[in-house]
Amino acid sequence: MDLSQKLYSIIQNLPLLASEIFLMLAFALIVTVELILHRKKATTVGQSESQKWLWGFSLAILLFSGYITVNQSMVIDTIQNQSSNFIIDTPSQFFKIIIIIAGIIVLFHVKILKYSLANEFYPLFIFQILGLFLLVISSHFLLIYLSIEIVSIASYIYTTFGRNKKASEASIKYALFGGISSAIMLYGISLIYGITGTMDLLSPDFSRNLNQIEPIALSFVLLLTFAGFLFKISAFPFHLWVADVYEAMPTPIVSFISIAPKVAGILVFTRIVTVIPISQQNILLLISIFSIAIGNFSALRQKNIKRMLGYSTIAQAGFVVGAIACLSNLGIQSAYFYLFGYLFTNMLAFILIDVFNEKSKTEGYLIENYKGIGTQLPFWGIMILISMVSLVGLPPTVGFSGKLFLFSAIWESYQLTQNKLVLFLFIFGLFNTAISLYYYLKLPFFAFFRKSTEAEENIFSTTQIVFSIILGIPVLFYFFKADLLMNWIGEIVK
Predict the structure, then answer these.
(1) Where are the alpha helices (DSSP H) in 160-304?
(2) Among 272, 268, 289, CA closest to 280
(3) What pLDDT is attached to residue 78?
(4) CA 89/CA 274 separation, integer angstroms
(5) How much is the pTM?
């Protein structure tokens, strides 16, 4: 197919990119709005008014983008368009919906806690969501790389919003690790192109030529190529930035980058894994095992709740990679289920710790600052217990259902392959789940079983209570009705 035919094919399929085109236009428009409102930033009142306009405009963009995505998903069964280098299918629509839900939650987090973020946050936020949308539909490695860079650039800038020494240090570390992982990924992509003669995942030449390479050499090439994805999902060995960035970033933004880039990266990661030889299963298993171990054992000694949740995301990424490493439909379905539950669980945890930290007189997010508030503020204590129990993977929460499906997929994979490393991951994962009890339940322990030296007043507004309950409902509901979500995901992953 020559260039003119490719361009014609792209033009013919533009309606399939409706949500991405809308986000591009919306990004240009919100940048213009921000520039118009720039003069009002000189005064506190003017800045507050500007943020209200930008917040409302951003919410409208996400809602309309969600409407387009849902409407499109109703008419799309499975469309895989090789010529335009995009994959418009039901999994991509599913993950777009997750990203939109995460974005809306973040905007309400900013609103109800009255964060005063820089006006530039809102255009960057839309820009990053555009990058995530492009990432989940890309099937060409250059488009994948470009999308990852769009997402990363916005994240690097977010880190500087703290405007303190920790933020400056974290932003430099984040940018350096991001640049290194991008360079390594590009080198891996160049090797893959040399091996296969194509950078299109859907091309028959891609999987056929990979199967002709020696397994050890291919493992090396794939590890290089995976660098960008492992960086985005905060998995071993590109995880060293996580704790510092989580501590330095404003909490609403942290809650977003803890889930949205992860789900987009996992989808593309899954697509790559499904077209590589089964002989490469061990490299995925090793990534999973090391991520789980480093995340859990590093979280054990953390005293700062945001750093602890940062290390926990490394372990959570390890579990998801472990499900994908099963190289089965059940494994992929389990990973999708796990991420959907993790969306509500993790974002609920972040907003709860943020409500107390913003309204109390304590400094920082030290776990010891939360002692005694579970008995003084029962609603806060119950909600934080639900979120932490779900992160561990205990009933009656969606985290338990997610872990159950995940370990079922791993055990099924062992039964089929008899791979000893799969069995080790199964046992090691169970062992680490038990270890995670210590640090996840440390916060509820301090809240309920340690006495506070000061009496705490009610820190929740009605809006915050309602919003916390809305986030908590799916965490409990999909334990009792896990089959509803799993059947839906089963229709997506055929």
Answers:
(1) 165-196, 204-210, 215-225, 227-232, 242-248, 251-257, 260-273, 281-299
(2) 272
(3) 46
(4) 16
(5) 0.91
